[in-house]
Amino acid sequence: MLKTETFTLNMGPQHPSTHGVLQVVLELDGETVVQAIPHMGYLHRGIEKLAESRTYAQFIPYTDRLDYVSSMGNNLGYCQTVEKMVGIKVPERAEYLRIIMTELNRIASHLIFMGSLAIDLGASTGMMFGFRSRERILDLFDMACGARQTYTYIRFGGVSADIPSEFIPALQRFLTDFPAMLDEYHRLLTGNEILYHRLKNTGVISGQRALEIGLTGPALRASGVDYDIRKVEPYGIYDRFDFSVPLGQVGDCWDRYIVRMEEMKQSASIVTQALEQMPEGTVMATVPKVLKPPAGEVYHSIENPRGELGYYIVSDGGVNPYRLHVRRPSFINLQVLNEACQGLLIGDVVAVLATLDSLMGEVDC
Amino acid sequence: MSNQDINSSLAELQARYLEDVKIIGEEAQSALLALPHRLLDILRFLKTNESYQFNMLRNLTAVDYLEYIEIVYHLYSLPLRQAITVKTRCGMEDSQVPSATVIWPSANFQEREIYDLLGVRFTGHPDLRRILLRDEFDGHPLRKTYNIGNAGERR
User: Fold this and answer.
1) By a Cβ cutoff of 8 Å, what residues of chain B touch chain A?
2) Does the ipTM surpass 0.95?
3) Which of A129, A146, A315, B25 supports an S-S bond with B30, CB 3.0-4.6 Å?
4) In chain B, beta strands by DSSP E
């Protein structure tokens, strides 16, 4: 008599498609996924505990190390939260520089998403192309702050330094070239029949379910829910720019891919507008070296490439935060992994993982 | 948008739950403080009532205030575009709060994180295990009384 039973397969923590040290315990019935349980914590550094023994300014470099492919956004979210507590007004030019940097970082982050999605599904050329274009953005960041990945560029009251004279010409060259680059990716990937069939109707998450399970960012918008913090609660000067929020319809892997590709286009448009409007002037307000925010608490969130990045800070009036909590979108988005994978073939788990685009540095905090 | 009009818009809720809920803090920092045994009723009311529709649990965390632990729920209403903060408190020794997973499944990982790092047990949680630290880990590091000296290593 034929006897069938499920078996367990460990995927990770050392697996090239898990984008870091994520372990997924897969329960399989033949090739079909019955359960996909994520186990995290391999990269846990106790950053929230560390914050309690650092001054407010000393914590900025730690934020770089959360979502390390979009560090500008992490800097921005944290600095704006503290600025909100203390009541610091940021100079106009710095506001524009912040927008330019975070939107460029969004493009860089989505390029990594595109590249890693491609290589996870077997198209290694996509990876090379994505990283090639991201290099142009990293060169720009290098010019502005001397770092390629952990910037600490955005500080309380502004940014660490004004951009050098060669920055704007280089940025303009990038903005001129970018539409052609994007076009090339669309020809390479979007028009690829294999990629289309791997992603279409794979890992469908309905809009209702996505909201309930706490998805945010492109993953939520791919399910058709219009929630972009840059629009619903504009922070900084986002209300001054004209851009649209791309939405998906089905909530499958394909929509999550397309939404991010469209977002890159919108981000490039925001950078162009910011460049036109940016005034001259100082880039740093006068801020005390050691901050002592008044006792109280603040929750502030921004739209990071992976979703809603929130900081909840409790101050007791001292030089260190009494409690600092980071709402990490990658962490909460991972909750959907199990149900999105159920019933799929084992090969499609990497497609769902790649399009959720969770980053372990942020998950583990 | 934020908590500014909280006092006026929450009259209905207050009338309904009277003793079990009160408004603490001022202006932007104001929050609803609910007693743990009515917490789920109040959260469900905030989610389903027409005039609130808080359909998103944006953030869930906890703070150790030495005498008690405060659980903080940041809710957001997508249809009405307003935010509210709900809080509840539990003791240091017997730290128990009902789980919000029945109302917002998104509470799942966040409650596990609080359990892991602050040692609050969420009753009714479907799968309350440590999430970031390994299962054999001693203690809950985000408690103020936690001794960092031994970093949780068994000697």
Assistant:
1) 1, 25, 28-29, 55-59, 61, 63-64, 72, 74, 78, 81, 83, 85, 104-110, 113, 117, 130-134, 141-142, 148
2) no
3) B25
4) 21-24, 31-34, 56-64, 69-77, 82-90, 96-98, 121-123
Predicted local confidence at residue B5, as pLDDT: 54
Residue B155 lies in a domain: no
Q: Which domain holds residue B99?
A: 3-146
User: B152 in a domain, yes or no?
Assistant: no
Residue B154 lies in a domain: no
Rounded CA-CA distance A328/A307 in Å is 8
Domains, chain A, ranges and CATH? 7-364 (1.10.645.10)
CATH number reported for the structural domain that contains residue B82 in this entry: 3.30.460.80
Determine what percent of chain B falls in helix, strand and coil, rounding each to the nearest 5: 30, 25, 45
pLDDT band at residue B11, thresholds of 50, 70 and 90?
low
Q: Which of B104, B110, B134 lies closest to A41 in CB terms?
A: B134
Condensed to tens digits (0 to 9), the pLDDT of residues A63-89 reads 999 988 999 999 999 999 999 999 999
Q: Domain tally for chain B?
A: 1
**Residue B7 banded pLDDT, cuts 50, 70, 90:** low
Do the chains contact at A323 and B63, CB–CB below 8 Å? yes
pLDDT tops 50 at residue A151: yes
Closest CA relative to residue A204, chosen from A5, A355, A102: A355
> Distance of CA B108 to CAs A30, A349, A361, Å?
29, 21, 20
Q: Are A41 and A47 in contact (CB under 8 A)?
A: no
The 10 Å Cβ neighbour count of residue A151 is: 24
Does residue B123 contact residue B149 with C-beta atoms inside 8 Å? no
